Amino acid sequence: MSQTTSITNVIARIESMFTTYGHETYGEDCTQLQHAQQCGTLALERGLDEELALAAFLHDIGHFIARDKALDAVDAYGYSRHSDLGADFLEQHGFSARIVEVIREHVRAKRYLCAVSKGYAERLSHASRVTLAQQGGPMTAAESAAYRRRPNLADIIQLRQLDDAGKLPDMQCPPLTFWLRLAREQLEASAAADASTRSARPSARIE
């Protein structure tokens, strides 16, 4: 299978999941598609780069994967371990390490902020407070101290804040096709970077 065909297949699967499950709400006042679009759009409006905006759009894709796999633990609020499930899927299909990391960490970032940011937990939506309990609750002091040392914490917190903000019922956003185009461009850029790295490696010499 060619690289182009592989990327086309990944984009088609992402489109299919958003089309099939994007109407679900998981306890919020907007659908999952609206939530994804709003998070990504807010990222662009705040001057963040397209890579982080795409991560914001894709951050909850693990909910859809859990539904696709018919996992038993899916409830009215989605799948509590969706961050790892989504990050694993995106990593396996060629998305950048930065996108994978911030998506993998967006649940733990909520637990971190609940522990270190006064008033943060009270500002969460009802659904986010319910899932916080499912996800382990606020971090302990020791966990928070360790988490604070993460090298990409600023990106992770940015995504978490976008997740919290993108829950409006009527916000105008670019359509699904816009985000699918960004996803394709990101995969093509990652594939080109990987190919360049491989070609730059010295060939093994046979004596």
UniProtKB/TrEMBL annotation:
Gene3D superfamilies: Hypothetical protein af1432
Pfam families for the chain: HD
Top-level division of the source organism's lineage: Bacteria
Domain HD: 36-111
Alphabetized NCBIfam families for the sequence: HDIG
Protein name in UniProt: HD domain-containing protein
Species name: Steroidobacter gossypii
